Amino acid sequence: MRTTVTIDEELVRELLRHTQAKTKTAAVTMAVKEQIRRAKLKRLIELLGRVEIDEEDIKSGDEMDLKRVQWLEQTGAKDEE
């Protein structure tokens, strides 16, 4: 998507130096992706200690996934996914 944005030229130069991007567009894209990544991490950090995880459910789920993969490999259905 093409968008026109007014950004301080000194900030863009600094961004280009730090990212080593070849174009302004690439540098801004990298910065936006990094900001989104940080926002998601912040939300995950806020969940620490709030989510209860049942390790037995995770282990049984892993075992079920492995059995499913084995079954798919035996039936040849895995190649069709």
Strand count, sense and barrel status of the largest sheet are: none
User: Structural class of the secondary structure composition?
Assistant: mainly alpha
The count of strands amounts to 0
Overall average pLDDT: 88
The poorly predicted ranges are: none
Our estimate of the beta-strand percent is: under 5%
Helix content: 55-70%
In short:
By secondary structure, the chain is mostly helical.
For the structure shown, list the relevant keywords.
3 helices; mainly alpha; 69% helix
Structure characterization notes:
With about 80 residues, this protein is mainly α. It has three helices and no strands. It has helices at about 10-20, 25-45, 55-75. Helix 1 packs across helix 2. It is elongated, with a radius of gyration of 22 Å. The mean pLDDT is about 90.
Lay out the secondary structure.
Elements (H helix, E strand, L loop, with lengths): L8 H11 L4 H24 L7 H21 L6
Helix pairs in contact: 1-2
